[in-house]
Amino acid sequence: MPFEVRDEGGRSRVRVHGRWTVAEAGSVDASPREIPPGSQSLVFDASAIEALDLSGAWRLWELESGHKAGGGRVSWTPSRPGLLAFIDETMAGEPGTPGHAGPARGAFAGALQGVGQAAARTREGTLDLLGFIGVITAGVGRIFGSLKRLRLPSVVRHVYETGVSAVPIVSLIAFLIAVIVAYIGAQQLRKFGGEIFVVDLVTVSVLRELGVLLTAIIVAGRSGSAFAAEIGAMKLNDEVDALRAMGMDPVEVLVLPRILGLVIALPVLTVVADAMGLAGGAILSWYLVDIPLGQYVDRVQGAIADTTFWVGIVKAPVFAVLIAMVGTLRGMQVRTSSRELGRLTTTAVVQSIFLVILADAVFAVIFMELDI
Amino acid sequence: MSAIIEARGIVNRFGRQVVHDGLDLEVEAGEVFGIVGGSGSGKSVLLRTLLGLQKPVSGSVRIEGAAVTGQPERELLAVKRRYGVMFQRGALFTALSVAQNVELPIREHYPMPDDLLRDLALLRIRMVGLAPGDAAKYPAQLSGGMTKRTALARALALDPAILFLDEPTSGLDPISAAAFDDLVLDLQRGLSLTVVMITHDLDTIFRVCNRVGVIVDGRMISGTLEEIMNNGHPWIRDYFHGERSRASQGGVKSDG
After folding, report:
1. Cα A184 to the chain's mean position, in Å?
2. Helix B234-241 vs helix B243-255: angle between axes, to the nearest 10 degrees?
3. Distance from CA of A50 to the nearest CA of B (A)
4. Does the distance separating the beta carbons of A22 and B94 come in below 8 Å?
5. Per-residue pLDDT reduced to its tens digit, A133-158
6. What does each C-alpha distance from B101 to A47, A233, A261, B56, B92 come to in angstroms?
7. CA distance A69 to B173
8. With an 8 Å Cβ cutoff, is A354 touching chain B?
9. How many Cβ atoms from other residues are within 10 Å of residue A333's Cβ?
10. ipTM score assigned to the predicted complex
């Protein structure tokens, strides 16, 4: 955006030439400082402008109005570009100040503000959660009141999506984890000559803990995020409001089928994981410690108590409720922006995994106290 | 006058369904061209084809003489800087404020100081009739009309030569729609734009468009409003001579 200023005795001629478009707008600092402040009259010569668009015109308008504000007079030759008149029109009226997101704060005040906002958010989140638990409980109550409210096709779909389609990955991971446990166990137990106890180790740890815990964590990653993202996108698209407006309860239509579906799917997946884990143990025992399959089965039956399997499986529905509730709640909390959708989906996964592990710890303490 | 947009023999097919079957289109520089067609006649597909977002099965599109079809993304960039698009539902970035939405394309393509960027964005925001105070608002806080205006400001961010509008007045009340039509006309004259708009709104067609192209049977019949009104095609006759149409024409006539 080149321009030259030439003094012509009493007035200055500003020769503007070249391209004045948005592409050049930032390249040259067209500051009015080069124009002598003393000169009262300024003539803009626009005859050599090659290209002018709104952004370029804005730079000229800035020059022009800066000079006028200093008390100078401005004229144009051959004529003032029409775009400048267009900007005049646009900028007419109250000057107006652009809105601000809020006053800038210092570091300390900013940190304090952050703490305050976090506290307020936590309070809001907790209230949301309590309210959500209440709404869900009421919804479950209504379903018991009238089974027609149970949306069976929807429940079946969620059993399929969260359960059946997760079978391959859950199987693979359960199998591999059992192999790892058996491998490390065999190494350690060999020192004491007790390789046979590898079977006990794998059986008890898979049935009591690993099977259900790993399954829950995989499902939290797969389905917790899917729940949050699905419902969140529906919120952004006003679909949830549409349901409400049609007299359907979003909790009943969207949340309960997901919770119910997962409560059915997760225990079944856990059984699959248990089986695959025991299979992995069998293969490793045969390969590393030379225990044939028949002996392995005998040993498994000796290792487990009546309760071992049930201690694992009983946790699955609880984990399922936690995962599904966190996922759907976070989805429902999406309000305005796609960024929120991403943040809440992440939160859903992190929180549901955390809650699953926390609940597992609580179960461990309870079972110890009960001596199971 | 030369054609600023030129499409020749566009064919678009999805599976067995033929949307466009040898469609030709010419838009002259400085005119307001309205694209009309029944629901499902492929107006949006045509728009996406013109923009280079969709590759037609065959046919070519040129904008300002530069080929759009069959170009690698890098070559297309120069063309994309020459047009601005306002999508039907605004397509504002919900995570960004009004001002940030307008600044985004400028910041992406042309480096410039922050205060100049802010000034240029604010100029565009005022230009479309929004108050400077709206600049810090987020899309979720905007009414339908303000969303459209913000989308228009963003479409004009790069000072394009061509402005594409997809259903600019859908979802607006008649008064806001008329105000938006006037705004488009003002901007078109003030900035010497070529405007291509898809619209269902007969008021808009009669008020704003110089020429109209109707998509029927996968082809385009285009001409001045008068020529199109006198066309014998049954769909066009129904469209322009139905009851709703007569009301719109009456409105315009009594205006001037």
Report:
1. 36
2. 50
3. 15
4. no
5. 998 998 888 888 877 778 888 999 99
6. 35, 21, 41, 30, 7
7. 42
8. no
9. 21
10. 0.76
